[in-house]
Fold each of these.
Amino acid sequence: MQQDISNLLNTAETARGTAAAAHVEGARLFGITLIGATADNLHKLLLTLSFILAAFVVTWLLRAILGQFIGSRSGTRFQFWAKHGVSCVVPGILFLGVMSNWFDNPARLAAALGLIGAGIAFALQRVITAVAGYFVILRGKTFNVGDRIVMGGVRGDVIDLSFMQTRIMEMGQSPKEQGDAPSIWVRSRQFTGRIVTVTNDKVFDEPVYNYTRDFPYIWDEINLPVRYQDDAGKAEAILLKAARHHALTRERISEQELKRLEESFGVKVGQIDPQTFWRITDNWLEITVRFLAPDHGIRELKDRMTREILAELDKAKIGVASGTYAIVEVPPIKIEPASQPA
């Protein structure tokens, strides 16, 4: 019993001596001991600053080397992945080095990370969601730099993708999309000149439309109203000729690409060639030509088709129908006076 009491007293004395030594090691300012301002912490602080400086130097060197290696391929996907590889790997190594420096005890590290994570998660919810959206975009292959997308109501080409934001070169809307928000003054799929920044958390709230990834083609249509007294068969032949001349057909797509489209997307070869459809209306016969086109350059393609169609219609003496109204003169109505009762 006496031995146990003696051991307990020795342990308490040792702990008191350790605390006193730690207290003495702390720096003093105006007679006040600064808690934590010890030689050990000063050493860790200097080592942390060295890590940060080394990270900046390594990042600068890697980007300089990549700049020399990339050369004229600026703006390509290779440059994007090279830049983001450096942006992800170097900070990750820096984070591990700093954590290992300050928290050499795994228990202390876990407790500190738990407290820091809880505080960050509460204060920066939208930021964390945006960063999570960044990894969803990359891991889920939602889109990449250079893809033409619609995200957060913005249509255009992706020119940059960061941890929290996506930058899009805005494009106009086709006439049938003019009612969609936001309103655009350009009436076709061409750039407006505005660069729009969209946060990555939009991938959790709204669908993302991709015009390019895996299937870089778009089906489009041209509608032609034809008068019932004109030759509808000739008008249909003119539409098909223009579409086969300018749009994509099975002859313009390689056999490997045709096989990929059929196996991956279930697109039959017969669906690639232009097709026409008729629809009866009150005033005219509407002939629609449906064709496959690349994801870029739709307006130029439809412009060439339209010019050729109008020229051929003029040669065939076929006019474009328009709404007509017949004005009928209604004869005056004579109202006989009511007879007086006898």
Amino acid sequence: MLTECLGVPHVSTGEMLREGVRTGKGITPKTAAKMHAGILVKDAVVDTMVEERLSHPDAANGFVLDGYPRTLAQAEHLNGWLNQRGIHEVVIHLAVDYNVIIARLTGRRECPRCGTPYNVVLRPPKVDELCDLDGEKLVRRDDDREDVIRARLDAYDQQTRPVLDYLRNNGGRVIEVDASNDSPEAVFQKIGRAMEN
């Protein structure tokens, strides 16, 4: 919703990494195995992917980064990259209770043919486990298992939470939005009001 409103691309490191695993381009089997275990990919790999993606013409007037930066080293790298280009960031931190995160992620499903996302609790398909659009059997991502999610939350506490402090302390505008219980539309409205302020 945010990228549509702003007319800029959505740049998701998770999507780029999963695409690299699917195609075998730029992701080694060792890196793929780490990803399936919930371990963060090396900073240099992710930094290079992001820089390459942001060099595309569609990102010239802005972009929404999703899942990046996740470590202090990535934040420092991004900060330098943005400063060199005179780009001023706005950081939107969606605060969500961990139990809510686990419930949401373990319920995620996706159509392997068209990519339509579902959630067995929040946005179920009309027919259990089948895509509404093409009838394909829905799949669960390997990294949506509870043990992997808990490992990712531990990694977040250790590596990503300090990124918010770094961004705040280095002049970044950080908008905190409670996203625990609201619909995506309501969260989007909260983001819009906070950005207007």
